[in-house]
Design a protein that fits this description.
This protein has a 7-stranded mixed beta sheet. A 6-stranded mixed beta sheet has the order 1-6-5-4-2-3, with helices on both faces. A two-stranded antiparallel ribbon has the order 9-10. Helix content is about 40%, strand content about 15%. It folds into 2 domains: about 5-140, Rossmann fold; about 160-450, pyruvate-formate lyase- activating enzyme. The protein contains 17 helices and 17 strands. Helix 8 packs parallel to helix 9 and helix 16 packs antiparallel against helix 17 (about 415-430). With about 450 residues, it is of the alpha/beta class. The structure holds iron/sulfur cluster.
Length: about 450
């Protein structure tokens, strides 16, 4: 399947008679990267034996970089791309002749810039078909002598090297898979629609179950389903969960889905709980009607409250995510989030970094088509992979900087989530000329989570 494949090939006059394929992941939210596991498997099936490095948990092995002829760098998200570009320059110093391909969502969104920085190929998706085709064409074109089937493929880091599931003293080793790619929705702030344009594609159940089986054999006791939206194809997901539960009745899991889907598929949540679901992540983003309209989220504050009732009513925790700093968010909107989280006893359901998230507008973003964005002063900063924007209310940008620093300091000092929550709320209330919020510390209970704060 071909999605917006954007390829620019530089022709090389050098014919290499030996070489290797190296795949590198920079960052994938603390779990074992699908950007390595799936291409690695696809390349193995095609007869190659790629080496891998996950720089989130391993050092950059200079010898591997030196001997590689083809290097794929997985950049599925903004943070990964920032790290990936640093890595690109380092790789070019170590191995100036290597052919470098960046692959993943952010590779295509920023292809013009990346190609100008010395990347040879940019591929949008990590489903691997294009990557295998590219490796094959490079290998054949350059007569690279690669390791064929029968050679040992380097091992991936153990699952224990990654973030763990944690709930009130219970810990679990986390495996990761995806049952779909893309998304059928068109939320304007999301990087997926410019690439997938409202389409999603299922991964065959056998493939997903094989990935689960492999990771359970390596010690996984919890699976994160990292689909952009697990309920785009609810029956597809359910079939996989039922099969998984039959074979591994003690395995728990989490998934991500939008508020609209929680409401639409409410009848399945009791079954999700019975099958081992411990928490669901949902991108609430804002409670402001205006902001939700601009982001085209198709939910309201009342819908979010209904979704909490559905998910919590089934005995599953809902972990909302937020984009609290947008050009259209007022200080009152920001304060409303804190009141809401406090009232609904969600303090431990939200990683503090969420209160510091500032809207990213990547190249090609659907937000650029919105009249509200056109009315803003915004310019593309290619090296930051996004448009810069300034809030019309200068104090909101100041608040963002202060909250960002506070969250970072508290995370470094291992300050309890509840403490950080009230500190930020107090800060924002003070800016609004309000007294410090009343603190209901006793009502907030720890919630299941993955021990890695969410960073896109
Ligand atoms: S935010 Fe979620 S539902 Fe919306 S387009 Fe992105 S993945 Fe789909």
């Amino acid at each position: 399947m071909l999605f917006n494949m954007k390829i620019e090939e530089r022709t090389s006059s050098t014919v290499h008679t030996s070489g290797a394929i190296l795949l590198i992941s920079c960052y994938e939210l603390g779990h074992r990267p699908a950007g390595l596991t799936r291409p690695r498997r696809a390349l193995k099936t095609a007869g190659f034996a790629p080496d891998t490095i996950d720089i989130a948990v391993e050092p950059l092995a200079v010898e591997k970089v030196k001997s590689a002829r083809f290097i794929g760098i997985s950049v599925p998200m903004h943070t990964a791309l920032r790290l990936g570009v640093h890595l690109l320059h380092r790789i070019r110093q170590i191995n100036p002749d290597a052919l470098i391909c960046m692959y993943g969502l952010y590779a295509t969104l920023n292809a013009d810039y990346l190609l100008s920085q010395g990347v040879n190929f940019c591929i949008a998706n990590t489903a691997s078909t294009e990557l295998v085709a590219l490796v094959q064409s490079v290998v054949e074109g350059e007569q690279i002598e690669t390791q064929k089937t029968g050679f040992r493929t380097a091992k991936l880091p153990p699952l224990e090297a990654y973030a763990q599931f944690e709930d009130n003293g219970e810990t679990r080793t986390v495996g990761y898979t995806e049952t779909t790619h893309g998304c059928k929705h068109l939320c304007t702030h999301c990087p997926i629609p410019p690439i997938y344009n409202g389409k999603f594609f299922v991964v065959q159940p056998d493939t997903v179950l094989a990935e689960i089986q492999e990771q359970v054999a390596q010690g996984a006791t919890h699976i994160t389903f990292g689909d952009p939206d697990f309920l785009n194809g609810p029956m597809h997901g359910l079939r996989i969960l039922r099969e998984m539960h039959k074979v591994y009745p003690n395995l728990t899991f989490d998934f991500t889905t939008k508020i609209e889907h929680i409401l639409k598929h409410r009848k399945h949540f009791l079954e999700f709980a019975q099958l081992g679901c411990r928490f669901v992540i949902s991108a609430v983003e804002s409670l402001s009607e205006r902001v939700l309209t601009i982001l085209e989220k198709h939910h309201t504050r009342a819908d979010v409250e209904t979704a909490i009732d559905i998910v919590h009513g089934a005995g599953i925790a809902l972990r909302p995510t937020w984009v609290p700093f947008t050009p259209w968010t007022t200080l009152d909107d920001y304060l409303e989030i804190f009141q809401f989280v406090d009232t609904h006893r969600l303090v431990y359901h939200v990683d503090p970094v969420q209160y510091a998230v500032r809207l990213l507008i990547p190249p090609g973003s659907y937000l650029l088509n919105r009249p509200e964005t056109k009315a803003l002063s915004h310019t593309l900063d290619e090296a930051s992979f996004s448009y810069t924007w300034i809030h019309p209310d200068v104090q909101m940008d100041e608040l963002h900087k202060t909250v960002n620093a506070l969250v970072e300091n508290d995370a470094r000092a291992d300050v309890d989530t509840l403490e950080t929550f009230y500190r930020i709320w107090t800060l924002a209330a003070d800016m609004q000329g309000q007294p410090p919020p009343e603190q209901n510390r006793d009502v907030h209970q720890p919630a299941p989570r993955i021990t890695e704060a969410w960073f896109c």
